[in-house]
Amino acid sequence: MTENAAGKRVIKKYPNRRLYDTNESKYVTLNDVRKLVLEETPFCVIDKKTGEDITRNILLQIIIEQEETGDPIFSTDVLQQLIGFYGNSARSFAGDFMQSSVGMLYEQQKRMQEQFTSAMQTNPISSMFADTAKRNVEMWQRMQENFMKSSGLFKPASPAREEPPLDD
Prior knowledge:
Layout: E1 9-13, E2 19-21, E3 26-28, H1 30-38, E4 43-47, H2 55-68, H3 76-85, H4 91-122, H5 124-151
Parallel strand pairs: 1-4
Antiparallel strand pairs: 1-2, 2-3
Helix pairs in contact: 1-2, 4-5
């Protein structure tokens, strides 16, 4: 495996479980790898000891971390149904279907973001309304949270791990 396998950034996983970005010449975290995904930077993760491509395993670890914090995407029912596809004759069909569905969702989301950004840049009034709407939603969320706290219905979540901002 070459350092830039097929034009991809190569990250090596060492036996001590640390990830090393060969392009940046530094150790990275799963959050750093997540940033590469969000930035659409092509990469692969290679097990230093075996030379095996373990990119899928690392991506699954990132999904698990994301599912543990905030609102999960996968409900228990969905996870159970996904597990049911393994060993089932529909496994290949299910994988193809999920891949195309997620791809379509991703492209639609991207198009919507581009259209929204374009509308905000061409119409400053829309931007002003969007900012006002955002502040109103934030204020409403604070009011709901304060109400729940004062009524005794609010149970604080266990302290979440703090992650560095994505802007670094």
